[in-house]
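Translate structure to sequence.
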């Protein structure tokens, strides 16, 4: 895993801040101007890269497929992109485009916006739609990903609060359905060095915890 960041992204709504300017290369999606005359008609003809560019440019919205999202949609006004004036940057909202990764293990890459404080927001782009399926979920669940047991897993983690350290791993399929998940961590609410280690509902030893953490964070 690239890294586990210490806090989680609070998604704040901003008014749209103009066309997004995002650096591009062959391994990451760049944002370009997209005409907004008939997004419903044109989105079905767009490639995954074009769909993601259109989302970042503010031309189309993303569906949110996350537990308890209740039909929520997302548009680019949630974020600030490269090109924002330095004195206007809000660290909670400033994002860059990370390299795409096959996060749902279906042979096609997903697209990622990275915030240096809160982690990743992940998008599946196909069939004329942009779907956000993973993001930071509160101050105790920074969003990242890892390669574990020959598959990619989304990781939500809390490693900065006193008295605990938690990791929750979720594996998706190509339909963005969760096909496997588990959590592990430790608790030490008395802050006396007497940590209780666990995986799911089972107690584990310190050695088992450290081995699992090393494998997950490799």
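Result:
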């Amino acid at each position: 895993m690239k890294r586990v960041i210490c806090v989680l992204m609070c998604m704040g709504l901003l008014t749209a801040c103009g066309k997004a300017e995002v650096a591009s290369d062959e391994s990451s999606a760049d944002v370009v101007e997209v005409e907004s005359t008939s997004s419903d008609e044109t989105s079905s003809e767009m490639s995954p890269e074009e769909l993601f560019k259109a989302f970042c440019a503010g031309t189309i919205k993303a569906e949110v497929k996350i537990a308890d999202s209740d039909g929520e949609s997302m548009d680019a006004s949630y974020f600030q992109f490269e090109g924002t004036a330095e004195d206007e940057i809000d660290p909670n909202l400033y994002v860059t485009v990370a390299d795409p990764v096959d996060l749902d293990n279906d042979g096609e890459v997903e697209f990622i916006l990275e915030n240096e404080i809160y982690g990743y927001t992940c998008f599946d782009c196909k069939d004329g739609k942009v779907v956000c399926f993973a993001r930071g979920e509160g101050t105790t669940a920074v969003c990242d990903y890892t390669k574990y047991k020959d598959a990619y897993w989304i990781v939500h983690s809390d490693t900065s609060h006193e008295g605990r350290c938690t990791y929750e791993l979720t594996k998706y399929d190509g339909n963005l359905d969760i096909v496997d998940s588990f959590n592990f961590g430790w608790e030490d609410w008395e802050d006396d060095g007497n940590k209780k280690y666990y995986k799911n509902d089972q107690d584990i030893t310190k050695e088992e915890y450290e081995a699992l953490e090393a494998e997950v964070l490799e």
